[in-house]
From TrEMBL:
One Pfam short name: AMP-binding_C_3
Gene Ontology, cellular component aspect: membrane
UniProt name for this protein: Long-chain fatty acid--CoA ligase
Keyword Ligase tagged: yes
Upper lineage: Bacteria, Bacillati, Actinomycetota, Actinomycetes, Micrococcales
Length: 610
């Protein structure tokens, strides 16, 4: 085994003062280039530009409205909406008056919203539509919530009207009084192991991470304009309630990247082609979908064989880049031919301009990392959590090791504890959980390091590799400890598999619950000559099961025999957020899945299922 480090640090790349805040970041960008394009949003079919001056004017008018409605410094305002320009305006308007923003996923249940409203003492809640209003207006009677505003009824217009009599100077005074260590936002975790906890992030947490990223030599070239002055561009389809989405928004304000709003991934390819981003930030499922969709569209016969040859050519070229000798002449030639015949079309489907993508939120398979680098899109896998203001580590241009989540993010230190737990210190680490002294006490060790709950190691070069979660370790009846993430990550790359849950706690062997990807299924069946099937028919069809078994056999090569999947079942429906099986940040909630699919456990273990 190669030597491993116990601790490593990447020093900060930016210098900040106690007087700076997210408000000063916005003001500095405005003063630097007021007519530069901040964002683009679909309006009347096409992407239309929004300048920094327009953003600043909208933020000022909205902030005056919040003052008129009684929001004081330290008060909380909730935002429950999909990714859209108004979200950004509301975010900076609340911050401008010294308020605290509470992001709420627009798919949250009434019970979840009630908890967040109560725990963070939200006074005003801005929601997207009538469905959200019907969900949240009853809370006006049962909590301290005072007002619900609807974006589909021009909430920003109502705030603008309410604040007409408020002087600009009043906003300026409040804005300039906000400091680095002041609370900016309370972000609720997705609650995969219980009730969501409110993560308190300061202006300094967010500003430090953004400024350190923009000042970093490698990341600067990804997000900031080059010598030609042309702005970089990113299309945001993550929810702004997600810590990575919020980080991307702030990064665009500071760096000058143009932010494109894409509230849904249903038309992702069309949006990418229309907006033409130069960099992306996404969860691994997006990258898996790009590959699986391209594979499905390749059809059958010679076309499919050509596509898969091109994929192998891209992957082998990328793998060879990491060797001392580099790609051979044959590998280089194959990649050139593959690019002309196949790979260039995949790049074009992503808009044709993407050079870099940041992946976080879950593990990306090495195969996909190599494939995308092989087509000319370098995926920089990172790692982090809401508690670390999104990235705690990341691969960066010139500092990339596919299969790892990179070296510490600038301004961050990573330590591996004796039991293998990853622990973090740095500018992005949160100040604590809202109203939760017990969680605060257990989340930091005696030296002040944040305990992530993840298991991993640092290689000899200081790159972090994550192997799983301490709370998700499966202990079989034979006493074998199994990290399900290794197997689950490999299997999710299969075009038929929408989601997978590896099981086996206290059982004689490891099994897997497989949910089919219902969007990909019809094309896969057609391409494999099966014909049209219902989901119920497909889950037991020999061709489907054989394909999944081959994928499991490949995944099992990554682990020992005792850790390998011995038996699987295809469940009757997809795992669902509505049923509580998937969190708003797309993480599986294992205890709920196991409870809701007890029949599937019986399929695997029979009398040993309980």
């Amino acid at each position: 085994m190669s030597p491993r480090l116990r601790e490593t640090t990447t020093p900060p790349s930016a210098k900040l003062s106690a007087e700076q805040s997210l408000n000063s970041m916005l003001r500095e960008r405005l003063e630097r280039d007021p007519e530069s394009v901040f964002a683009e949003e679909r309006r009347g079919g096409d992407f239309a530009p929004i300048t920094m001056r327009t953003l600043a004017d909208d933020v000022l008018a909205t902030a005056k409205g919040f003052i008129a409605l009684g929001i004081s410094p330290g008060d909380t305002v909730g935002i429950m909406a999909a990714t859209r320009y108004e979200w950004t305006v509301l975010d900076f308007a609340v911050l401008a008056v010294g308020g605290v923003v509470v992001p709420i996923y627009h798919t949250s249940s009434q019970e979840q919203v009630e908890w967040m409203v109560t725990d963070s003492a939200i006074r005003i809640l801005v929601v997207e539509n009538g469905d959200h209003a019907a969900l949240t207006e009853p809370l006006l009677e049962s909590t301290g919530l005072e007002r619900v505003l609807r974006l589909d009824e021009d909430a920003l217009g109502a705030l603008r009207e309410a604040g007409r009599e408020i002087a600009d100077d009043e906003v300026a005074a409040r804005r300039d009084a906000v400091r680095f260590d002041d609370l900016a936002t309370i972000c609720y975790t997705s609650g995969t192991t219980g009730r969501p906890k409110g993560v308190e992030l300061t202006h300094g947490n967010l500003l430090s991470h953004v400024a350190n990223g923009v000042a970093d030599a490698g990341l600067h070239d990804v997000v900031s304009a080059g010598t030609d002055g042309v702005q970089k561009r990113t299309l945001l389809f993550l929810p702004l309630s997600h810590s990575y989405g919020r980080f991307a928004q702030m990064l665009c304000v500071h760096s000058g990247s143009v932010l494109g709003y894409a509230p849904s991934t249903k038309q992702l390819v069309n949006e990418l082609q229309a907006f033409r981003p130069t960099w992306l930030i996404a969860v691994p499922r997006v990258f898996e979908t790009v590959v699986n969709s391209a594979d499905a569209k390749a059809g059958t016969g010679m076309k499919l064989r050509l596509f898969r040859w091109a994929v192998r050519a891209a992957e082998s070229w990328s793998v060879a880049l990491d060797t001392e000798a580099g790609p051979s002449a044959l590998q280089r030639w194959r990649r050139v031919v593959a690019d002309r015949l196949v790979l260039g079309k995949i790049r074009a489907a992503m808009g044709g301009e993407v050079e870099y993508a940041i992946s976080g939120g879950a593990a990306l398979s090495e195969r996909h990392g190599h494939f995308f680098r092989g087509i000319g899109v370098t995926v920089m896998e990172g790692y982090g959590a809401t508690e670390t203001t999104a990235p705690a580590s990341v691969n960066r241009p010139g500092l990339i090791k596919i299969g790892t989540v990179g070296a510490p993010y600038p301004g961050t230190s990573i330590r591996i504890a004796e039991d293998g737990e990853v622990r973090i210190k740095g500018a992005g680490v949160f100040r604590g959980y809202r109203n939760n002294a017990e969680a605060n006490a257990s989340s930091f060790d005696e030296d002040g390091w944040y305990r992530t709950g993840d298991i991993g190691y640092l290689d000899a070069d200081g790159y972090l590799k994550i192997s799983g979660r301490t709370k998700e370790i499966i202990v079989t009846a034979g006493g074998k400890n199994v990290q399900p993430a290794v197997l689950e990550g490999e299997l999710r790359s299969h075009p038929l598999i929408g989601e997978v849950l590896v099981v086996g706690e206290g059982k004689p062997f490891i099994g897997a619950l497989i949910a089919l990807d219902e969007a990909m299924l019809p094309t896969w069946l057609r391409n494999h000559g099966v014909g049209e099937l219902t989901l119920e028919q497909a889950r037991t069809h020999p061709a489907v099961r054989d394909s999944i078994q081959r994928a499991i056999d490949q995944a099992n090569l990554k682990v020992s025999r005792a850790e390998s999947i011995r038996k699987f079942t295809v469940v009757r429906r997809s795992f669902s957020e509505a049923e509580g099986e998937i969190s708003a940040s797309t993480k599986l909630i294992r205890r709920v899945v196991l409870a809701n699919f007890s029949d599937a456990m019986t399929d695997i273990y029979g009398a040993d299922a309980r």
